[in-house]
Design a protein that fits this description.
The complex is a heterodimer.
Chain A: E1 3-7, E2 11-12, E3 18-25, E4 34-40, E5 47-53, E6 58-60, E7 68-73, E8 78-83, E9 92-100, E10 103-107, E11 111-115
Parallel strand pairs in A: 2-11
Antiparallel strand pairs in A: 1-3, 3-8, 4-5, 4-9, 5-6, 7-8, 9-10, 9-11
Chain B: E1 9-12, E2 18-23, E3 35-40, E4 47-50, E5 64-69, E6 72-77, E7 86-93, E8 99-101, E9 105-109
Parallel strand pairs in B: 1-9
Antiparallel strand pairs in B: 2-6, 3-4, 3-7, 5-6, 7-8, 7-9
Chain lengths: 117, 110
């Protein structure tokens, strides 16, 4: 059974960098599939952030491309999100998910990140 | 990359059928069979219920069905049950390896 678990700081100061990691269990990232990040601001809808393949190929939401970096560590079977220069607008629940035929078939439980001083 | 358009809310009584629409453009829904739907109960992570417009993952009830016509995709839930009360989101491939979600629809079972 594939499981995903997000981890990282729950509070980030404005202008600093948000860093999250997604640990994957029950499946080797190196075996394939695409891996993604999705966020959901409080009381709002879902927003795709970006996708990466185990080879390191990445695809980003155009409006976030200048601030976001996705990376993968196959030795730890995890992938990561870095978002620089955060503002209050980046406050959200962040989910990692597996992407299969352009559908998110396995999700983590989500982690709340608040941007505040 | 604009969000797909969904009604903010829909409601129905137990046993009835409801349909949630998801309207995009020729750049996303209209040009792709990679449309998916998600069910999100309050405080929980989303769950995939439809992929590739009309396909159901293993374990998803056949009360959930998907379709598409032109730039609009639709999710129909038949035999409405109290447990179906949740937020529902559509998502479409939007070209150049990007994805776009709908704004979400709150389903209330009366």
């Amino acid at each position: 059974q594939v499981q995903l678990q997000e981890s990282g700081p729950g509070l980030v100061k404005p202008s600093e960098t948000l860093s999250l990691t997604c640990d994957v269990s029950g499946f080797s990232i190196s075996s394939g599939y695409y891996w993604t990040w999705v966020r959901q601001p409080p009381g709002k809808g879902l927003e795709w952030i970006g996708t990466l393949y185990h080879t390191g190929t990445t695809y980003y939401r155009p409006s976030l491309r200048s601030r976001v970096t996705l990376s993968v560590d196959t030795s730890k079977n995890q992938f990561s999100l870095k978002l620089i220069s955060v503002t209050a607008a980046d406050t959200a629940v962040y989910y990692c998910a597996r992407l299969w035929t352009e559908a998110f078939d396995v999700w983590g439980q989500g982690t709340m990140v608040t941007v505040a001083s | 990359q604009s969000a797909l358009t969904q009604p903010a809310s829909v409601s129905g009584s137990p046993g009835q059928s409801i349909t949630i629409s998801c309207t995009g453009t020729s750049g996303d829904v209209g040009n792709s069979n990679l449309v998916s739907w998600y069910q999100q109960p309050p405080g929980k992570a989303p769950k995939l219920i439809i992929y590739e417009v009309r396909e159901r993952p293993a374990g998803i009830s056949d009360r959930f069905s998907g379709s598409k016509s032109g730039n609009t995709a639709s999710l129909t839930i038949s035999g409405l049950q109290a447990e179906d009360e949740a937020d529902y989101y559509c998502c479409s491939y939007a070209g150049r390896s990007t994805l776009v979600f709908g704004g979400g629809t709150k389903l209330t079972v009366l």
